[in-house]
Amino acid sequence: MRDIAKGVGMLSGSIYYHFDSKEEMLLAVYQEGERRVAEAVDAAVAGETEPWRRLEAACAAHLRALITHRDYSQVMIQTSPREAAGAAEAHIRELRRDYEQRFRRLIDDLKLPPEIDRHYLRLLLFGALNWSPVWYRTGGDSPEIVARRFLDTLRKQLEV
Fold first, then answer.
1. Which residues of the chain have a pLDDT value below 70?
2. Contact in structure between 21 and 1 (CB atoms under 8 Å)
């Protein structure tokens, strides 16, 4: 808390004027990160109708938002609901479930062989995309190209 307060030029106790607890502050940062990433994904898929292109647009928007809003997205990606207490834990679970529902719907719309487990496909995509702060380098392939290559690799193996 002292580091955060120092970073914004206030006394550490002053933070509690705005937030009642560390968990409440964590929740506020998580909510803002989820809002920013969700808005980007929703805007990206809005005009697209073809299922694979919708998923590609969502993956690209997710990746771009993670890169653009690193401070928020790191909290969103790395915070387990169990790290928060009480109401904050439940709220983070709900936010995560609501966000991931977008990708559940997008993956449900894909024509895939019946033996493909869509749950694990979603986890695979999130794992690759959410690890991007480690491997992504500015000046390399754009998020759109990365998303296209990820999905091209999967699509060749998954299409019926």
1. 1-20, 159-160
2. no
